[in-house]
Design brief:
Keywords: Coiled coil, DNA-binding, Nucleus, Transcription, Transcription regulation. This protein is mainly α and 212 residues long. The protein has four helices and two strands; from the N terminus they run αββααα.
Length: 212
């Protein structure tokens, strides 16, 4: 076996009369027995640790189960269920616990309400500021629109006045040209009439009288 499996083998045999016979490969019986004891102890320790661990897990399971049952009972008691099993002292303790819980609940509720009110006030102030900014922007736009409209009206008025002045100047020039043509025509007619008039001879005496 030692040769075929390339292992260390030890054999201990007792005869019916109690005589000891032993065999070990390479005559290393003591070392083989030492290794056997060491591994045997390690295996026992492992088994013991596993058993202890299993026992611990069972103990922890029982503890957790008991805690869960206690919590479930307390929850039922707080919900007003299974109160018949409680005595007077336990009922008083439950009442005090409920009152304390109610105080904490009211305190937490008040705190949350104050936070909500504060947040709403902040939002209100923010909306008011936005509203003021929008109103200011609207007023500025209205002023700008009024200024633009006034500018357009002023431009139209200036354009109308310029057109009226141009028309008046044109009419004046036309009237002046017409009057000049009338005057020239009258002068021409007067000259023509003077050329066609025949004056009588004047005597010396009349000329002297006229000169005097």
């Amino acid at each position: 076996i030692s040769v075929l499996c390339d292992t260390e083998v030890a054999a201990i045999v007792f005869s019916p009369k109690g005589k000891l016979y032993e065999y070990a490969t390479d005559s290393r019986m003591d070392k083989i027995l030492e290794r056997y004891e060491r591994y045997s102890y390690a295996e026992k320790a492992l088994i013991s640790a596993e058993s202890e661990s299993e026992g611990n897990w069972c103990h922890e399971y029982r503890k957790l189960k008991a805690k869960i049952e206690t919590i479930q009972k307390c929850h039922k008691h707080l919900m007003g269920e299974d109160l018949d099993s409680l005595n007077l002292k336990e009922l008083q303790q439950l009442e005090q616990q409920l009152e304390s819980s109610l105080k904490h609940i009211r305190s937490r509720k008040s705190h949350l309400m104050m936070e909500s009110i504060s947040e709403l006030q902040k939002k209100e102030r923010s909306l008011q500021e936005e509203n003021k900014a929008l109103q200011k922007e609207l007023v500025e736009r209205q002023k700008h629109a009024v200024r633009q409209q006034q500018q357009v009206q002023w431009d139209q008025t200036q354009q109308a006045q310029a057109q009226a002045q141009a028309q008046a100047q044109a009419q004046t020039q036309a009237q002046t040209s017409s009057s000049s043509s009338f005057v020239m025509r009258d002068q021409q007619q007067l000259q023509a009439a003077q050329q066609n008039i025949c004056y009588p001879p004047v005597s010396m005496g009349e000329a002297a009288a006229a000169a005097a």
